Records
---
Amino acid sequence: MSASFGRVSRLRPAPDWLTFCWLVGSMALAVLPHLPRLPLWMPLLFLLAVVERASHFRWKRRPLPSWLRLILTLLCIAGVWSNYGTILGRQAGVALLCTMLALKLSETFRRRDVFLLISLAYFIVITQFLFDQSIYLAVYLLAVAVIITATLIVNEAQPARDVRTPVRDWHGAPDVLRRAGWMLVQGLPLMLALFALFPRLGTPLWGVPEDALYGKTGISDHMEPGSIRDLFIDDSPAFRVDFAGDARPSQGRLYWRGPVLWHFDGAAWCREAPCIQDDGKDPQPRRIGKILGEVDQPVRYTVTLEPTQQLWLFALDTPVSPPRGFMGLEIDYTLHRTRPVTRTFSYEMTSDTGYQKNTKTDGWVRDVGLQLPDDRNPRTRELATELRERFGDDSRALVTHVLRTFRQENYRYSFTPPPLGFHTVDDFLFETREGYCEYYSSAFTFLMRAAGIPARVVTGYQGGEYMGEPEYLLVRQSDAHAWSEVWLDGEGWVRVDPTAAVAPERVDRGALAALAGQRRGVWDYPWVRELRNQLDTVHRLWTDWVLKFDQARQKALLQPVGIEELSSSTAVLLLTGIIIVVTTVVMWLLLRVQWIGGLDPASRAYARFCRKLSRRGVPRSAAEGPEDFAERAAAAYGEVAEDIRRITRLYIQQRYTRSGDDSGLALLRRAVRSFRVRGRRDSSAA
Amino acid sequence: MPEQVQESSGSARVVSLTQSHSELATALDQVGAIVVGKEPVIKLAFTCLIANGHLLLEDVPGMGKTTLAQALAVSTGLNYQRIQFTSDMLPADILGITVYSREREAFDFHPGPIFSQLVLADEINRATPKTQSALLEAMAERQVTIEGETRDLPAPFFVIATQNPVDLAGTFALPDSQLDRFLMRLHMGYPAPEAERRLLEEKDRQLLLRDAQVCLPLKDLQVLQKQAKDVHSSPALLDYLQALVGATRAFPGVQTGLSPRGALAILACSRAWALLEQRDHLIPEDVQAVFVAVAAHRLRLGAEASADQEALAQQVLEQVPIP
């Protein structure tokens, strides 16, 4: 083993310490975002690999024998298998890739191995996008790509370094990074061309990660005290809305309907009331498909929903036509999908903000709408009976009375209410009188049911912020809201927002205004929110132009250029053309930089002078001295021989004598600027 | 006009033209009249003289190597000795010998031909290595040690050696370390037809040599040598020189490139050349003018080399861009 190692290192030099440091650094940065997803033993493996390889450098240890490396490899594969039950798939595949990266690190004997590792690191950078496609990650990975490219440069430059001196020279790092960055910039036009022209699938390129069940959930299908409060602290976007035309519904109408909750067990509300199934009298199809009816104020819009891992979709109250595709609208206007939303998902909707719902309803719906746990909240039940006696059959008056009570009797909208006991509604209505939407809608719905009025809790979002240009509505998790709907004879299901009765500003100006003075987190400052809004605009552009770039968008982009259908042969042709053009331009720029840039001012002026002559058929070869060239050029263009000699003299004075100074430089520059090649070229001389 | 003033003050082509320069020009003319059609070689030979180095002339017999050496000696007025090297020559034949004098009853030292200011070592590769190294040691040290006594050689001390590169039977090729002692290696080459015609028409070269005058006396030569050391080399020029030297070390076909001593030799010769061109600063052309003569014999070629040393040195010149 050691013999072959020695032979190899003689033939092809081993990577030196500097290359190794760069390599370890860039690999660590490339793997870093994967870390939370990887098994716990993975960082340890990396550390061991680095230490093992570093020991070759520091203490001249021998590398691990090849049989040991083979065993380690098998062990690692087994480890991945035991963690994931497979070695295929997204998670397991990436884990396997990372193990191989770590193992290969302890095997970097030659510079060729470094190349392999660098390629692998590039690939790992790409795999990050299988899990997350946010712009922040993209920016981070771009930076990592620069560092990996810098590692490539450092590795490439190794033969030029003196291997005998221990390299601790990091002063070259900014320069190397600058070069790497410049190399990536050169690749930019190519990247854009590939992005625009690469044949696209019908769905966006970054496909559905099937096993990605993590991340934010937002509104769920059950509600208990505290579940919405968790969302208040969360300023991350829930969804964005583009309204068609000029429609901009006012804040008071922006009720984004989510799951409707029917069942109350005394502590929590949930969607799937067991009684609906157990009832046995469910003659109606659960889905009503398209709801026909008169539409007063149709609002058309597109919702772009962030991943929720849930089935629920959100629509402006009240949705009148279900969107296309795998979606259904249930009888209680809950909009859902057949598969969880695991990535950014867009759908078009039409809603009517003034629409009344199902004026007729069936007995079973009323029964479900009156369901209550028997053993809870006796005082509320008492109050309900009392109210019922007082108002008789006038349900509307009863509702109005309750809302007025909320408004007048010292109920407070608060973000930090005191805890409630076993009889949650009793405690809230008669003791604490302090809470937010969840408390109010829950208590109100309970009270209505107790009074014999069918009621239900609706969860979703309320409000949003218009921003950006063109204007769109951003709805955040912190806009989460819960309200009630009661069934009134002749009117059908009517929306009642008890929170609005207590804190009208919640609805008019959003949760933030309603909770004015109550900071929701350590980072809750106005400027932070402002910054976050700015970032969201960027984020939206990213989603719109990068993540959602699919076949249709590609077509829309290419149509103005006259490409109707992008077949793969056209794409290849176009790409080839662009690559040729870009490479030519970059080469020209590079050569220009080599000729002009990086020279001292006198040489730059002289290079300009040479270019002028070169254009007239007298090129200076790189190895030709200035006087030789001057003689040749003067012979070719006798008419300007004196100018040529004078410029050459000035240049030599500037560059090769002791007496070069700024005034001489100015003289040279002026002479070169005014120099024109005149007269006919004496071809016999040149 | 201030512009004019500045220009003329800045890039004066020379050093003040001293008497030494005019004498140098006369000397160049005189040698040029004797060795016709060989101006570049003559100029390089003078360069070597001013750079205070030894000269190796390499060519087949009858090309005027000896004539050139003699012309140089006569023109500079240096005392001159010629040693014809043979294979049975001993170091003592060059350095001198101590003989017992019966009249004086003491040992007398009879200095060898090396004790002269200009030594022409003809066919140096015919001598055995032992004899060669005696000469070469003297060239390096500028002193000889005979029987424990160190004797200084006269100053200046020039060696112009010749060797025939074709007829190699019974010769001992100079090892690299000894070739390195020569500042330059020059090839005479055939004369141009017009020059050859002049040679045929004019008087015998030996007669011309006899009539030749001392044009560049020793003290003026020393003035020039001193001036050459003051020729300015700018950073840009040193960059170029280093690029050239560096290129020889990684040039295909070259096994061993130029040593730092080789780089110093090029710099010294370039300075002397610049002085001949009447300049007080170096320009890339100066380096290019002397490069092949100074560098070629210092390159050790690999087995795969496709050209001879001079051609490779020329290729280096053509391929290294001037920074």
---
Amino acid sequence: MKRWCHAILVCLSLLTLTGCGDQLYLENADIPLSVGLDMDDEGNIIVVYSSPVFHEEASKKTHFEQSTALSFRQNRKLLNSQSQGNVIAGKIQNLIISKQMLKRINAFPILDVIFRDPKSEINARALVVDGSLEDLQNISMEDKGRLGIAIRDTIDAAHQVSSTVLTRVIDFRGQMLDNRVTPYLTEMRIRGQDYAITGTALLNKDGKYATSLDQNESSLLLLLQHQTEYPLQLPFTAPLQLPFTTPPNMAPSDPTMSQMNVSLTINRYKISSDYAQGRFHFEFQVDLTANLSERTFPFDMKTERRKLEQVIEKQLQQKLERLIAKIQHHRLDPMGLGRVAQAYHYPIWKQVQNNWPETLAKADIRVTPHVTIKSYGITF
Amino acid sequence: MEMPEKGRLSLSQFTFTIYKTQVGIAVLSIAREVGQYAGRDSWISILIGWLITMVFSLLIINIMKKHPDKTLFDILPIYFGKWLGGAFTLVWAAYGLYASFSTFYATLFLIQVWILPNTPTFSLYVLFLIPVYMLCRHGIIAIGHYSDFVYLFCSWMPMLLLFSVHDAHWLNLLPIAAEGWLPIITGVQSTLPPFLGFEMAFILYPYLQEKKKATKGVLIASTLSMMVYLLVIILANIIFSDKEIQTWIWPTLALLKPIQFAFLERLEILFLSFYTIIQLMTVIPYLYLALRGLTQLTRKSAYHPLLLFMVAAIAVSSLFVDMTNERIERFLDWLSHAGLVMAFGFVAFLWTVSQLRHLIQRRRAM
């Protein structure tokens, strides 16, 4: 009797299981891998997306869809009615925001649906695109595979060689909500049938586009942010004062004959801070290990190594200070110096926290890099 | 009155039952709830909350020591007489019922939001009530065994959170106590409800094999809970800014969401699925507590029918009560208040009474 009771109970509970009630065939699903956001002249939001096509009969592998509405979610409804299957937002690999839109409005409130829906993919890479999003369709994918995956992989690869920052959608949210830092996103350019990562786009505290950094400046920003996941790749130019000999038939001033590239890893990173005479003072003290990866001029590494280190130190300092001046000029703080100010100068921070980028613009920021060349490969 | 229980609880079962009752739904939102008062100093608040909890756990053991073979419901009539004692028993039973019901609702709501939005509520309720029924039916020894299992089976879960640490800003924890100690002390009030569950010692104590180790057991249980909470709070604070923590309803799940392995995405689903196992370990002991109280008031044989009735009541209630974000928030809020009164207020009161009684008895003996 007891056993029967159990059996019946089990059967009853199994009956209530939904099982395959809400099954989803891959062929019927429309899974955007890349989603783009733009704005038309009337202020409506344009959503563009590309998704892979799994139908055997379809000749094209990628499917593009575009719609215009007042919000992201309204667009999704429109897109659902345009596309063959159900639009599934859970696999988005990158979120592309147009630069034109960022120049006009703060795009962050529009992204609300991404954070509200637990199913959405908040690891998607956030990037800014210079150019019209309609050009996404023109990118030739014959040698690349799926667009969304290809863009994601390009961003990750560019980040590994320190050409750009890596900001996921969730990181972007954190940057927007934190008043101690201003947002930074990967920047991409579409030209004709191709795309390329150009560096980093910096947004101001209002979420609007402020300025762009090229690839080398992006490396320097990663250095200031202490992003040490990957070594930083940086080019330097050997100045004429260096005791190097040029090959015969070449002028020493020939620029291609005085290049070197190093990859830098951070050994010690310290920001000392002070508040005096009504302004903040910050000093980055960075000890770096350099690996020489390329040198196009002959040079005696054995005896003159320190001179080369000094050249790198000096140029690095100049470049960093130029970058900082640019950042201050645009009233930004992608380095997150606000965190330092809050942690060590709390009473003053409380007064200036709502006006932090302005305050930082007046601050005195110095960098003292110390470089040691650890290795120069297998040739002298 | 002794329940028909075979066997006794080992120290680990005693400890883990309390520990797993404590770690419940609160672990998901604790960073926000303490953070709204104490901000980046939440970790200090949790340490203070932990100390307070330990004091109250010791009070319980102190009361129980005087009556080594009795549960709370056997003690209440001795102290307060039949009627008042009965009234207190009823209040405790009501508290147990409320705690288990509201935790169950909250768990199921969470599962519906995060994992199974399309599954009918009723069938989910029925499925989750089966283990509740089975464990409660077999009483305290089964619950003790289950707690051992839960501990072993889910001990990896806090470790998983550590994967989120790689873009942490340790500076977020500075400056310490910049706004003075008042916010930290205010924050302590919301660190106490997550420690609720130590009052389970009232029921577990008579079954413990070696009574001398009870003190050790309650202290270890609260310390294990504290470590989990501390980990969650510190991680949330170094990864999110103050403001951002307040924007997530469940900051702990937000910590998990970005973690991704090459072979696995949406880790929080895996986490939540395992988490239900822990959650049931909060629902079941409280339901058991309530049923023990109710059988005390009626008769021993009423246990099984009452259990069936309660389980059926939960299942049927799913058809009538629609859960919303605010309702769950309100339920858990009331539970916190009730818990503060019952587990902290009542324990202090009972301890005072037992001390006085002890004193008077000793006088009389002299």
---
Amino acid sequence: MRIDQREAILRLVPATFAYAFLQVALRFKDDADLARRLKARDPHVMSTLYERYGRLAYSLIFRVVRDASTAEDLVQETFLRVWNRAQSFDEQRGALGPWILTVARNRAIDHVRSAEGRMLSGALELDRLENPKLFSDLEDSALSIDRARRLKAAFEKLTPQQRTVIEMAYYEGLSQTEMAERMKQPLGTVKTWVRTALKTLREELTEAMLA
Amino acid sequence: MTCEDLKDGFELYSLGLCDAEERSEIAAHLERGCDTCQKNLRGALALNAAMFASAPSVRPRRRLRRRVVEGFGVRKAGWGWLWALAAACMAAIAVWLSIQERRRTTELAEIRQNLIEVSSERDRLAQAFNFFNQPGTRQVNFGSAQPRPPRGNVFVNSRLGVLLIAGNLPPLGPGRTYEMWVIPKGGAPVPAGLFQSAGDGSAMHLLNGPMDVASLGAVAVSVEPQAGSRAPTTTPIIVAAL
């Protein structure tokens, strides 16, 4: 690379950082405004909320239930639940996106569990774990495209067994005991796969956030 | 258990997939307000969210948006009226273009017809000019003695035929036409073609083809029915004796 090219690139670096920072700041500001309107029971906010998170929620739910019609029902249920529980959401510190996706995933897992007649008591647990208060001071930008891409790349690097257990946890809602039964593997082995895989993903996400 | 023992369990805990023992341990730490565990939980929720967001993107059907939003009593100001307006404008433009097209087609047909007529007239004039220039063309004048008679000239040429140029022709009644006759010496009139006059009463008619001029006695014109006659049915209005 020639020196003048390098200098030109170096000159662009601060501008790039400033732009990225501005994007994140605007996103936070927008989400905070959405959350404020949500708490104020402004029904028009649902249109913007759907524009921003509808496709993500639908994709996630569809990944779990594998049926378009059911996924549509569950997306509607997700947004209704967000509307009903928004009063507990902290609009200043809360991360709207992660909360909505958690609600969406839990609705889908709850549906699959109900359909399969397993762990009906787990519904209460899921309900507790999507409490809006839990999503305060969270890194909202975990949903950025760049981080999703890096996480996906890290996921692809996992061993096949590790990928399988992670998919079972996130998209099928199976406990480690259920995974062991389905894979016909000792529980200890499955636990090792799960923890190793999660550790790898966690480290990748941390690096992505620091980058 | 210590916070360090629990640090790898927060993702499963937040997914609702922890074993009962580990779940109660983590819950106890969180209820105590343990900072390390609170931080670990936030990290786990962020990882979970990123994992959720990395699900393969699928575009939902458009109706889902309407279904979700209208569930909250919100009706998006539709753009239907705009489409209707656009459709009405398009229809109006289509009608206008159709009328313009029809008008242009009519004009074009008229122009084409005029062109054909002009072209035909030009051909006839060229033929007449050719007629005049040919050696052996004989000219006979007629009608000059009458007060307001049809007047004009007959040109005969043994190779080209007979050319009649006339003026002051009387107007024709409906269903009538002029018919030219060539009359051999001592013979009966022979039909030599039908023609019409122009608005000013002038006409030019050519009987094309070789002709025995020596045996030709006269050229005459009479008013006949539209389809013509085999022999004159009215008194000839022009008789040019050769």
---
Amino acid sequence: MMFLQVVLTGVLVGSVYSLVAVGLTLVWGLMDIINFAHGDMMMISMYTVFWLYTLLKFDPFVSLPISAGITALLGIVIYKLVIKRVVNAPGLMALLATFGLSLFIRNFAQFLWTPNYRFVGESILSGKRILIADIVIGLPQLIAALGSILMTLLIALFIKRTKTGKAIQATAQSRDIAELMGVNTEKVYAVTFALSGICVGVAGTLLSGIFPVYPEAGAMYGLLAFVIVALGGFGNIWGAFYAGILIGLTEALGGFYLGTQFKYALAFLIYLLVLQFRPKGLFGW
Amino acid sequence: MNEIMKNRMLYLIFAIILILPFVLQDVNFQHITIMFLIFAGLGEGWNIITGFTGQTSFGHAAFFGIGAYTSTIMFYKFGISPWIGMILGALFAAGISAVVSYPCFRLKGHYFAIATLAVAEIIKQLFVSWDYVEGATGISIPVKPDSFWMMQFHKSKIPYFLIAYVLFIVATLVAVAVEKNKMGYYLKAIRESHEAAEALGINTTRYKLYAMMISSAVTAVFGTLYAQYILYIDPFMVFGLDISMKIVLLTVLGGLGSVYGPIIGAAILIPLSEYTRVFLGGTGKGIDLMIYGALIVIVACFEPRGVLGLFRRTKKRGAQYAKTTA
Amino acid sequence: MPRPLLEVQNLTMKFGSLVANDDVSFVVNEGEIVSLIGPNGAGKTTLFNCISGFYKPFSGKVIFDGKDITGKSTHQITSMGLTRTFQIVKPLKDMTVKENVLTGAFLHANSKREAENLTDQVLRMTHLWDKKDMLAGSLTIADKKRLEVARMLATKPKMIMLDEAMAGLNKTEIKEAMELCVNLNKNGMTLLIVEHVMEAIMPISNRVVVLNAGRKIAEGSPQQIINNEEVIKAYLGERYYAKSRQINGGI
């Protein structure tokens, strides 16, 4: 029973990891840019929920469209102001820019809101749980996981079915040829950053009821998202999804059987091991 | 001829750096020059594997930390001189880098970069939960009277400066020696095209391994110096992503793949981060890092080829001008 | 009695269920120019990749200079004196032309000076001397192909394999490339050439090997090949026949 409980916890956590990673893999696959500020965008979403709750008594689930909208907007602003200028820069210059951006956003948050931990007190879900046999499932965790899976599905459908989604795919294959086909790649990039923002916006909202809100809140998620994206294969949405679950499981099982201090180390170790057999990630080609 | 000229430029830079802390005898300034030398040296080391060879490492903190911990533990537990620890640390780092990067060399591009990041994070976690090295608490290096052999100086920063200076020059000359010889050409060929390099008879795996070992040994040396200078280390400080990224940032900023890159990058970034910290860091509100981050973004946006790229472009423009007017 | 330098024995290469090379055997003797021709998708480049160590063949053997090189890595094969160019050129872009060639020259040189002397020699031979300080990335396609050859020559090979070194060149450039091949051959170099430009290689080849759909369908002198029914059917067609008359008349 304990084993099942741990597995379930891992899957639930992993689903949220997946959503964060999906947002990152979109940008990475499309523009070959490592966005170090990805986790920090999530942190902004968490603060949005926190302030809406504290000041206006909005329930986190009511805030969802607002916080997702804000991070989407943030994504577009980041693209227009920064990424656009470095997307064709040689070497690792784009990485330099996103790293600077991450430092800026994180410390801006600290400047405005101090480094203290804050909590979104009550939501309609907090404290509620489901009991199946001996397995306890926290409702906030369950909703976070289901919401993340749903969101991943929506993003995947968007990419696959809509015209804009197809334009994104075409641009990822070759920017020049997409341009020749009449795709406005500038717009495609901006839309992708907005989508990426929505992913972390939703993930941040879903997590804000479970975890404390503070300037570094997104840092570990951002870092794990790198590993998950690479584990799944760059630009591969379902790859990122399954890799997220795998990392969640590794963390939960490893944390339970070996001690929580090793859970992140194990997540990184899984990456190194899998890549020995699949040098381009689980679903890479 | 050109090569001699270039080296002259390097010696001029060495000479200018040497007089800095004597001209401006301000403790803060001396501290910044020491940090500058440490990070410029780290950049020189990192440049060998990433700038020359094209294998991006986001995990050099691993080797920095190994250098710092090797000498510190030997001193802390057995009272052995940090100089011996420094040499052993460099050897350890080279050995460990060989073992961990050999299987990773099959990975291409970002997959390799993320793997190096993973390695550094794993090593950090191991040190955090390793009681023998005091885990997350870290180690305060016991204070001893001023001594060259024990690499501790409390009366003045000048001895630290001189040690950092010599190590920096060694690191730079190692990079120059690699670049100007067969190895440098081989590494650059690997960077430009793996297949072409193989077809030219280059054992790509072996040369990548050599580059990684030299690079991590150089990095470890500065880890020891840093530990002796700050006199305190913990896993988050020396194995953290911050250190890895700082090395990446300053080299990219200055000019990736050039011996001058890390020197220029460190000369900009280190005073920037140290001065913002001194003047604005006291508030505890993160203004210093905020400004630091914003400035990095601005530089990246407006000079995407690195500062060295800017120099080269102006020089080229000048040359073109000379040509058209001649 | 000619001495065989490269022997390909029953080489088969598969990618999953796709058979790219099926039981291919042929020999290149020392001092020969042998051409490998065939329509697109015949498996020529795959065969090159198997010989030069980029792929490990599924079965069969490759013998070079009396030694079994099957499954050896590319750099080992190059060190033994067999090297190649790439169909899609791979210049070391951010390095100058001279540095490109120098990188190859280090292979058998004992000092940088020796490597530099060899580099100068190769640069003059391949008419790249005037462009030695240009960045390889900024060269024209013809010069990039020339650079591929130059870099390869700097490794002091016994035998070279050219993968479509003339595709995309204009008539003058093709003629220069042909002359270079002939000159190298006169100085004792053995060549294996994959080429689409028939009119360029037919006149200079000693023998021609024809691949179609992964199999060897013919081998013989250029004259035999252009008269071979099966080859004409599979590949060359009337168009070539007429064209080759025209070109040969022109030279």
